[in-house]
Specification:
Layout: H1 4-14, H2 36-49, H3 55-64, H4 71-89, H5 91-95, H6 106-130
Helix pairs in contact: 2-6, 3-6, 4-6
Length: 153
């Protein structure tokens, strides 16, 4: 006949993964302190590359809107210009959580501005493809003075 003590050990021995030993905490182990500077730098790189995540979607939207001047294509161009300008204007608040005296955020900020300028470049290309940018000589005829006509005999 099984006593209560042997019954408990029989039940606990049948549990998979149960060892029956008490877990003791290690007193002498040093807790690893996370390197907050490296984490901040990594998160700053993520923030710097954030504008590139919207480029494929916006480029496809501008491509699908066609080359004619319509309200939809004009809204897309406006957003592709206005959002990067707002992003560049708010660069200090974007990178404020990652500031530290242990590291510099200059490379991340430069990359952020370059990505925003690339978005503006896509918008300018769309304006050029719609014919809104004055790039041809015929666009400047209103300010061009005609040469005087000489009559020769």
């Amino acid at each position: 006949m099984l006593t209560s003590k042997t019954r408990n050990t029989a039940v606990t021995d049948s549990i998979i993964g149960f060892t029956g030993k008490e877990v003791t905490s290690v007193q002498n182990s040093k807790a690893t302190v996370p390197n907050t500077s490296a984490i901040q730098v990594a998160r700053a790189w993520d923030a710097a590359l954030a504008p590139t995540k919207s480029i494929p979607m916006n480029a496809m939207m501008l491509y699908m809107s066609g080359n004619s001047v319509q309200i939809f294509s004009m809204m897309g161009v406006y957003m592709m210009v206005a959002n990067p300008i707002r992003g560049i204007a708010n660069i200090e608040s974007t990178f404020a959580p990652f500031r530290s005296t242990k590291h510099s955020l200059a490379p991340q900020m430069i990359l952020f501005v370059l990505c925003q300028l690339f978005c503006i470049g896509i918008a300018l290309y769309k304006c050029w493809s719609m014919g809104l940018l004055p790039t041809e000589p015929s666009d400047w005829l209103a300010w061009h003075k005609a040469a005087p006509v000489r009559m020769t005999c």
